[in-house]
Amino acid sequence: MKICMVGAGYVGLVSSACFSEFGWNVHCVDTDVARLETLRRGEMPIYEPELQGLVDRNTRAGRLHFSDDLAAAVAGAEVVFLAVGTPMRRGDGHADLSFIFAAIEMIAPHLTSGAVVATKSTVPVGTSREIERRLRQLRPSLDAAVCSNPEFLREGSAIDDFMHPDRILVGCDHPRAREVMQKLYKPIALRNAPHHTSRGPSRGADRFNSLAQFAIRAHCRKELLQARSMTRRNGSFVQDTVQQ
Ligand SMILES: NC(=O)c1ccc[n+]([C@@H]2O[C@H](COP(=O)([O-])OP(=O)(O)OC[C@H]3O[C@@H](n4cnc5c(N)ncnc54)[C@H](O)[C@@H]3O)[C@@H](O)[C@H]2O)c1
Questions:
Q1: What does each of the 244 residues of the chain score in pLDDT, given as a tens digit?
Q2: Percent helix, strand, coil in the chain (nearest 5)?
């Protein structure tokens, strides 16, 4: 399967390396030429344990490519991921979606019919509908599906988080796109990571549900660890709970 990753930043680079490790053919593009040159020299612009090894192995095997040729990377790709930045807007705290919409304008002319456009960037609920609307305007006859596939990566354990997620979240209305996303993640799903697919407006809201659960778990874990250090007598009980 050919995949195009738009954005070779933290999320785009980690995701590209991991997808290529599954055996997929990944073309990672960026507008930052200096970053691409660094990557082509085999140097990592960020530090993540295991990332260097994954990138080296998969570029040598011809499964991972870094390029600024967006047209060639998008053409024929079954899935085009958007992993561009969505910085918080000053004043109101809303996500600035200008990089997302600029990327849509850039990829639209080159998308192959049947392609799935998936957002890895953090976007508000309703963004998939807006992307669909813009794609229809730019390429009225194009048959493309849009879905949301948020990532939950922690710095320092991003590769492990990607390879061993507690769930794979895909928000998608289109049956063919659901099949493509299931095929894409099959190597992880085989390790029993549940694949959650949601439709309609909840396809974006599920990300926030997962983030809330993640935050609650992290908070509970911190509280339990504090409790364990305070109550040495019950230490073993608390420790067992923390590890679950
Ligand atoms: N960093 C994290 O831990 C994390 C985790 C989960 C989700 N996210 C979300 O993922 C998104 C990306 O985050 P990041 O930390 O990887 O951002 P980043 O700023 O490190 O990377 C974004 C990359 O996209 C490139 N880019 C921008 N417009 C482009 C275009 N039109 N074509 C090609 N490349 C383009 C930029 O040059 C940059 O290299 C954000 O929405 C972020 O909120 C981040």
A1: 999 999 999 999 999 999 999 999 999 999 999 999 999 999 999 999 999 999 999 999 999 999 999 999 999 999 999 999 999 888 888 899 999 999 999 999 999 999 999 999 999 999 999 999 999 999 999 999 999 999 889 999 999 999 999 889 999 999 999 999 999 999 987 766 667 777 765 555 555 555 555 555 555 555 555 666 665 555 555 444 444 4
A2: 50, 15, 35
The answer to whether the CB of 164 falls within 8 A of the CB of 194 is: no
Domain boundaries, the chain: 2-200
Give the three-state DSSP class for 88: strand
The hierarchical CATH code for the domain 2-200 is 3.40.50.720
The rounded Cα 158 to chain-centroid distance in angstroms is 11
| Ligand 1 centroid, distance to 30 Cα (angstroms) | 10
- Give the end-to-end CA distance of the chain in Å, rounded to a whole number: 36
* The amino acid at 152: F
CA nearest 150: which of 168, 163, 132, 133?
168
Closest residue by CA, ligand 1 atom 21: 9
How far does the centroid of ligand 1 lie from the alpha carbon of residue 99, in Å? 9
- Residue 79, SS3? strand
pTM: 0.85
Of 11, 80, 149, the residue with max ligand 1 atoms within 8 A of its CB, to mutate for a pocket test, comes to 11
Centre of ligand 1 to C-alpha 143, Å, is 26
